[in-house]
């Protein structure tokens, strides 16, 4: 008489076990010894470790990650506060300028000292300078057709843009400064307030200081302030 074949060993579906445990969180109440016997893969080495040790490790890792995220948020907040204070000081200095030359000089000084921008040019059409008793002082420049064409080409139809600046363009667009031997970088914004008022150029000899991928919100904001002040500080203030 032949023996009956043994029944195949039944195994539980891991997903169903996990689902059941999730709906019965009190399963291990009174079964603490079972918790101590459970082994799980070690997160950093081969082999297994107890469930409790793994839980302690995971909690420590989460605490470290939370601490890192908090530090990142604090660092971002400190940076934003410092940026706000620098921008506030810049705008106040511009508002206090008594004439257009003082406006340009305040712009260049604050950008160099507080925003790591060593070179600035403020290109304005001759209509803003003809009635003034003296020629514009650097960083103000009288916008001619040649400079206007090159600035428009660098903007490539945009209101503002960050781009590389060749030594030739540097000499042409920032003639009052020393040109670097190699290409630098710049942020350009068009100035307008009902009428074209020129261009603002912020430049650095570092080719990566103003990268093409950078946001130009700050440059546009400064340009908007400068455009309004150029109109306010008309020839009668010169």
UniProtKB/TrEMBL annotation:
Entry keyword Cell cycle: no
Alphabetic keyword roster: Coiled coil
Stored Pfam families: DUF484 (PF04340)
Name of the protein in question: DUF484 family protein
Listed PANTHER family: DUF484 DOMAIN-CONTAINING PROTEIN
Organism (species): Halomonas alimentaria
Superkingdom: Bacteria
Coiled coil: 56-83
InterPro entries: DUF484 (IPR007435), GAF-like_dom_sf (IPR029016)
